[in-house]
Structure formats: structure tokens, C-alpha cells
Amino acid sequence: MVDHLDFRNGAVSTETPVSIEEFLGASNATAVRIEPGEDARALLPHLDRLALVEVSFPVFGDGRGYSSARILREAGYQGELRASGDVLVDQLFAMRRSGFDSFAPNAPLDPAVVKASLERYADVYQKTVDGRRPVWAKRHEVA
Q1: Which pLDDT score is estimated for 18?
Q2: With a threshold of 0.85, does the pTM exceed it?
Q3: Domain count for the chain
């Protein structure tokens, strides 16, 4: 069982994230935590000094964090983007496609189940930030 998943090629940040309010209040922090309902766009002018953005998922059914991830990645954020909290194995595929590259779930995950869930689908249907072409875009490709 694993209690942290990392898909980055670099080191995982060990800095404790601060709130958006604290970060924007002239903090020297390089790690920030986004809570549900907070606007990730407030961080856009500061992306160059962030090493970690941790997005809180207090309950698995709260999907607002997916939007935060996509906003940050589409704006060019290259640092660690961590989903933390009630992160379930069946959400990992969509979270990875939205731009998350590390995970700190409340409960440990079985590595074999994680691997199977991430490799389950050969094709995808939506365009997201991971660069995979959706199946509908492949319709007119020449073989």
C-alpha cells in the first residue's frame, strides 16, 4: 500500500503549503494550498515562484479541484500539482488528465490497483491538458 503517489521526474516538495490568503499576503512560501471554492486564478501572476500547488479534495464528490488543476496547467504552471484528501483510486485517471502529477490520499492505495486503473483505457474522449488526442480527433487520421 502507498500513501503518496508521485508521477514527476523531479523531487517532490516537502514544504508545507500555506493558504492562498497567506501566500498572497507577501509570504515567502513556494507552496500553496487551494481549498474548495477558492479561485486558482488568483495564483496566475505568481506561477513562476511556486514549486507546489496542493489542491484539497475534502470529499470525493467535490470536483472543483479538477478545474483548479486545468486552469493552472493551461496557464503554464510546471511545478508539482498535488491532489490531497479524499482521493480515490477510480479518480486517478481523470486527475492525471487534468494535470495532477502527485497525490496524497487520506487512505493508502494498492499499487496494483493504481496501475490497473491508470492503464484501463486506450482512448480518451475529452480534450484535457495531458496532450492525449481524444478519440473523436482521430476519426480522420490516415492510417
Answers
A1: 95
A2: yes
A3: 1
